[in-house]
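Q: Convert this sequence to structure tokens.
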Amino acid sequence: MNTTEKELIRPVPPHPRDMKRASHFPALVITARRRGFIPVRELWEFRELLYFLGWRDIKVRYKQTAIGAAWAVLQPVITMVIFTAIFHRFAKINTGNIPYPVFAFAGLLPWNLFAGAMQRSIVSLVTSTPLITKVYFPRLIVPIAATFSAAVDFAIAFAVLVVMGIRYNILPTWRLVALPLAVGVALLAAVAVGLWLSALNVKYRDVGHAIPFLIQVWMFASPVAYPMGLVPGRWHLLYSANPMVGAIQTFRWSLLGGPAPDLRLLAVSFLVTLALLIWGLFYFHRMERTFADVI
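A:
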């Protein structure tokens, strides 16, 4: 390269007059927003997005289906029939004064709420890849919105339980005040596990393959098809570390009656749920900055 070419590519310094004009304009500095452990303010600002993502999942779930919302009823009803044949007819499990079909269905409803919300929450980030990689919003919205469709399924199937209660002359009592607590614990447990595993699923897709196995094992480790009385007393405290033990026990008692659940064991289930939620929020908050790069 000769001297003439070097002169041509030499950068031209800015004129002092231009620098003087530029000094009159305010400087705009873009910095990251300070966020707390839980971005409550951002979640409130993006509340409409939370609603639309939840409504989108509900519409997609029943779009182009022949029987529509009836799928929310068929799954627990068929499972109830199988449980009745295996555990009641053959295994002779005694449920006291509560008919076994109602007993099993009342256990399946909170379980399906938990399992459905958790499963959809875990895969929600991966299925929302185009949105996450192109638009900024609180990523916490995605796994939370994924639980809405499970709540709708629960509401539809709950109507069947009401009909079964009328059929077997099981009338509601004051115990119904505990029903929202049981449903809330089931949803909180689903969100807690879903936050942690959804963030882990972004990095390791093996999590998505392990979900059906996890749900199957967890169901039989919960008092869905059998009463808690079958579990030896010395294992009750450890058994109650499963968050769904307290949720299912409270749900059944609020609707069907029977012996009141042990408050100490319910407290253990609730504290474990709270610990899982804090852990899930912490891990999700730690990993969400890498979602757009890794996903």
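The chain has 16 helices and no strands.
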